[in-house]
């Protein structure tokens, strides 16, 4: 078992486990999470969320981002300057759409989450640009 610094199991799910968890996804959720799609800007349900809590992977429930690192980037997608735990994000080079970007995925279920760009605020200078549909928000008690 692979465990993150924050104590979460990062052991990759088997294809059978992913298929089981994906059985209840909507067509739009499948398009983003499994087929690496993107939701339209300014339409995501979590864009304007200002509540305190943690954003989890919609497919496997791994904590991805804390509300403490969320900021308004003006791009139309929920944006964060750092992940919940550095081990909770997987980075891949994405050369689609005629440009080079860094795709971010869940390390446990391999779901597509969004992209990260080097134009975010201090202290990291990073802008993790997420699809609302790829996450579930869990409010702090």
Give structural notes.
- With 141 residues, the chain is mainly beta.
- The protein has a single domain (15-139), classed as Metal Binding Protein, Guanine Nucleotide Exchange Factor, Chain A (Beta Complex), CATH 2.170.150.20.
- Helix content is 11%, strand content 27%.
- It has two helices and nine strands, in the order H-H-E-E-E-E-E-E-E-E-E.
- The strands form two sheets. Strands 3-4-8-7-6-5 form a six-stranded antiparallel sheet, with no helix packed on it. The chain has a three-stranded antiparallel sheet with strand order 2-1-9, with no helix packed on it.
- The radius of gyration is 14 Å and the shape is globular.
In this structure, how is the largest beta sheet organized? 6 strands, antiparallel
Share of helical residues: 10-25%
Q: Give the class-level CATH name.
A: Mainly Beta
Strand content: 25-35%
Rg, Å, rounded: 14 Å
The total count of strands amounts to 9
What coarse outline follows from CA principal-axis ratios? globular
Number of helices: 2
> Strand pairing plus helix content: what structural class?
mainly beta
Instruction: Return residue spans where pLDDT drops below 50 for at least 5 consecutive residues.
Output: none
Q: Order the strands across the largest sheet as they lie in space.
A: 3-4-8-7-6-5
Order of helices and strands: HHEEEEEEEEE
CATH superfamily: Peptide methionine sulfoxide reductase
Residue-averaged pLDDT: 96
> Any idea what the CATH architecture is?
Beta Complex
**CATH topological fold name:** Metal Binding Protein, Guanine Nucleotide Exchange Factor, Chain A
Supply the number of structural domains.
1
Q: Between the first and last Cα atoms, what is the distance in angstroms?
A: 29 Å
């Amino acid at each position: 078992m692979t465990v993150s610094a924050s104590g979460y199991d990062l052991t990759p799910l088997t294809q059978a486990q992913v298929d089981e968890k994906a059985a209840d996804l909507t067509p739009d959720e499948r398009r983003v999470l499994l087929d690496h799609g993107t939701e339209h800007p300014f339409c995501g349900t979590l864009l304007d969320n200002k509540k305190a809590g943690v954003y989890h992977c919609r497919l496997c429930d791994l904590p991805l981002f804390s509300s403490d690192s969320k900021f308004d980037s003006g791009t139309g997608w929920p944006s964060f300057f750092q992940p919940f735990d550095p081990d909770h994000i997987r980075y891949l080079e994405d050369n689609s759409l005629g440009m080079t970007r860094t795709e971010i995925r869940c390390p446990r279920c391999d779901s597509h989450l969004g992209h990260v760009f080097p134009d975010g605020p201090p202290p990291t200078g990073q802008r993790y640009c997420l699809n609302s549909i790829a996450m579930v928000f869990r409010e702090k008690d």
